[in-house]
Amino acid sequence: MSEEQDIKKIMHVMRRAPHGSIYTYEGLEMILIMAAYEQDLSVAFIGDGIYALKKDQDTAGIGIKGFSKTFMALDGYDVEKLYVDRQSLEERGLTEDDLVVDVEVMDASEIGRLMNEQDVVIHH
Amino acid sequence: MNIGILLKEGPYNHQAADTAFKFAEAAIAKGHKVDAIFLYNDGVINATRLGDPPQDDRNIAARWTELSLKHGVEVLACIAASKRRGINDEVMIEGGEITGLGTLTDIAIRNDRLLTFGD
């Protein structure tokens, strides 16, 4: 696994709101484990997936532990490629300043191009 | 081609388990190697042998056992997802196994393709 050609490009795609279903949370758990394997990881947030990164979430009312702050830990796991779909952001009236982490905002076509480059794409 | 499969939905409620099985069967028939089926999210519920579907319906759990025993496909349930949903060694189908997400990472790395079936 020390050879560079053995490093795979793996993209995780977050597509859903953080609560309402478990997909985003278990997706994040998967990312945290994969981060230990020194692969070329990235995470794309599209559609309601961008809500996972929204600042000031308060989950007390639904009695479920919040996890938006865990996304802030990704940097410490060397998962630095976080991509957000520009249109998804605009449609929801959000800007980069509303998000808990630094992301690259890009057009859908650019995210599509990056998806094409991946060895593995896993949607959540 | 070497293929890994990630299955993210439980049986019956969603068609993903049926489609994943049909895909695996067809790929094997075409001479491809299906390395493993990794069960995640509600997909781990595919691994319980406690299900008892009507006689005139397909038995999805039995299909995974068949893939494992007949074709050497590893059927693997994520331990963290399993613990949440009451899946453990005691209820595990024949040919199935509990494992960790590190194994999924290995499956993603060592195969030519990782195919995801889910919602």
TrEMBL record, chain A:
Coiled coil: none annotated. GO terms for molecular function: transferase activity. The keyword Transferase applies. This is Sulfurtransferase complex subunit TusC. Keywords: Transferase. It comes from the Bacteria. It comes from Chlorobaculum thiosulfatiphilum. InterPro entries: DsrEFH-like, Sulphur_relay_DsrE/F-like, Sulphur_relay_TusC/DsrF. The gene is tusC. Belongs to the DsrF/TusC family. The keyword Transferase applies. SUPFAM superfamilies: DsrEFH-like (SSF75169).
Automatic annotation (TrEMBL), chain B:
GO terms for biological process: tRNA processing. Pfam families: DsrE. GO terms for cellular component: cytosol. InterPro entries: DsrEFH-like, Sulphur_relay_DsrE/F-like, Sulphur_relay_TusD/DsrE. It is found in: Cytoplasm. Keywords: Cytoplasm, Transferase. GO terms for molecular function: sulfurtransferase activity. PANTHER family: PROTEIN YCHN. Belongs to the DsrE/TusD family. NCBIfam families: PRK00207.1, sulf_tusD_dsrE. This is Sulfurtransferase complex subunit TusD. It comes from Chlorobaculum thiosulfatiphilum (Chlorobium limicola f.sp. thiosulfatophilum). The lineage of its organism: Bacteria, Pseudomonadati, Chlorobiota, Chlorobiia, Chlorobiales. The gene is tusD.
